[in-house]
Amino acid sequence: MIGRIWHGYTTPENADTYEDLLKEEIFIGIRDRYIPGFQEIQLFRRNVESEVEFITIMWFDTLESVSAFAGEDYEGAVVPPKARALLKRFDERSQHYQVRERLTGSE
Q: Tens digits of per-residue pLDDT, 20-33?
């Protein structure tokens, strides 16, 4: 499994609007593409000084699955125009990690 991690930053004034856009439009659009090997997306948020940081972690079966989402340059950020308009800055490149161990709370 591959974890794709990306960071974006916005102003406190735009944070709720940006979060709503992610949840109500962008994430649903990703899900509705039915990308082979796409497992899930997680959203994290925290206040950092004068900005609000968002982190997304997407889970894919393989790097080929990531490429099906992001294109040939699979490390490139995928940031739609509506999101770019609300962001102050963001990672131009996503980081990809192999999941080496996963332990759940159940046996």
A: 999 999 999 999 99
CB 69 within 8 A of CB 60: yes
Q: What is the pLDDT of residues 52-84, one digit of tens each?
A: 999 999 999 999 999 999 999 999 999 999 999
Cα distance from N-terminal residue to C-terminal residue, the chain: 20
Decide if 9 contacts 53 (C-beta within 8 A).
yes
Looking at domain 2-98, its CATH class is: alpha beta
- Cα distance between residue 83 and residue 107, in whole Å: 40
DSSP 27-76: HHHHHTT--TTEEEEEEEEEEETTEEEEEEEEEESSHHHHHHHH-SSTTB
Q: Where are the domains of the chain?
A: 2-98
Give the pTM.
0.93
The owner of tokens 């930053």 is 9
